[in-house]
């Protein structure tokens, strides 16, 4: 197994760029990598990633109790990263979560060693992928495409991966980024 420290990684980028697909492919290549199962106030029937569905009221209760190490809102939904990810990091295992570009400054303030991985793809490719995935309505897809342009917050450094082309090319870049020495070399 490739060498990996107990580091926390956030994969970010516009909706439909392929974050979940890349995460699953990287986990198949790196058996020690922990993929974080997010808590989301989205219906369990939505499909897509493996997540824990909850209500707004339950999310708020858990947030107040300190159950999330990071949390944010986007697309009218609340997202939480469960605190049990700390156990994996403390045990020296790396963990990767699907994050939000908008919360990266806050996440880096809280976890200075956090590595951000920014995945991009050309706008027409995003539109085609969201339509083909079919998880959202046409109206929701339009809102996600409008948000695609926000980019990274000013001053935030990230490893850049273009997933406009074949999936395998981006998977290789992600696997390299998740291994500390290569990650350092490709930092901007
Ligand atoms: N390189 C690629 N080539 C072709 N299709 C791809 C590629 N990468 C991802 N896809 C497809 O694009 C769609 C969106 O991917 P995915 O759900 O992983 O995106 P995401 O970034 O996690 O989106 P969201 O943030 O909305 O959850 C999926 O149907 C996936 O199979
Ligand atoms: O636009 P920004 O702030 O980067 O991301 C906001 C949210 O959009 C995506 O949500 P989902 O996975 O489609 O529910 C990301 O995973 C993130 O949680």
TrEMBL record:
User: Which amino acid positions bind ATP, per UniProt?
Assistant: 13-20
Q: In which pathway does it act?
A: Metabolic intermediate biosynthesis; 5-phospho-alpha-D-ribose 1-diphosphate biosynthesis; 5-phospho-alpha-D-ribose 1-diphosphate from D-ribose 5-phosphate (route II): step 3/3
Annotated catalysed reactions: alpha-D-ribose 1,5-bisphosphate + ATP = 5-phospho-alpha-D-ribose 1-diphosphate + ADP
**Coiled coil location:** none
Q: Which GO terms describe its cellular component?
A: cytosol
Q: SMART domains in the record, alphabetically?
A: GuKc (SM00072)
Recorded hits in Gene3D superfamilies, A to Z, give: P-loop containing nucleotide triphosphate hydrolases (3.40.50.300)
Q: Which GO terms describe its biological process?
A: 5-phosphoribose 1-diphosphate biosynthetic process; organic phosphonate metabolic process
User: What EC number(s) does its UniProt record assign?
Assistant: 2.7.4.23
Listed A to Z, the keywords are: ATP-binding, Kinase, Nucleotide-binding, Transferase
Domain Guanylate kinase-like, first and last residues per copy: 6-179
Q: What is the recorded function of this protein according to its Swiss-Prot or TrEMBL entry?
A: Catalyzes the phosphorylation of ribose 1,5-bisphosphate to 5-phospho-D-ribosyl alpha-1-diphosphate (PRPP).
Q: What name does this protein carry?
A: Ribose 1,5-bisphosphate phosphokinase PhnN
């Amino acid at each position: 197994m490739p060498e990996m420290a107990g580091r926390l990684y956030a994969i970010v980028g516009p909706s439909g760029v392929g974050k979940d697909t890349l995460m699953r492919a990287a986990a198949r290549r790196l058996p020690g990598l922990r993929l974080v199962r997010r808590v989301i106030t989205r219906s369990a029937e939505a499909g897509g990633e493996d997540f824990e569905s909850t209500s707004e009221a339950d999310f708020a209760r858990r947030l107040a109790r300190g159950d999330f190490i990071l949390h944010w809102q986007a697309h009218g939904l609340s997202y939480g990263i469960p605190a049990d990810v700390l156990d994996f990091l403390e045990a020296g295992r790396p963990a990767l979560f699907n994050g939000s570009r908008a919360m990266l400054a806050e996440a880096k303030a809280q976890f200075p060693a956090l590595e951000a991985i920014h995945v991009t793809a050309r706008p027409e490719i995003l539109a085609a992928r969201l339509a083909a995935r079919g998880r959202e309505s046409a109206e929701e897809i339009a809102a996600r495409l409008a948000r695609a342009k926000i980019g990274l917050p000013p001053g935030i450094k990230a490893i850049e991966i273009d997933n406009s082309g074949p999936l395998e090319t981006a998977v290789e870049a992600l696997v390299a980024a998740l291994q500390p020495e290569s990650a350092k070399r490709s930092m901007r």
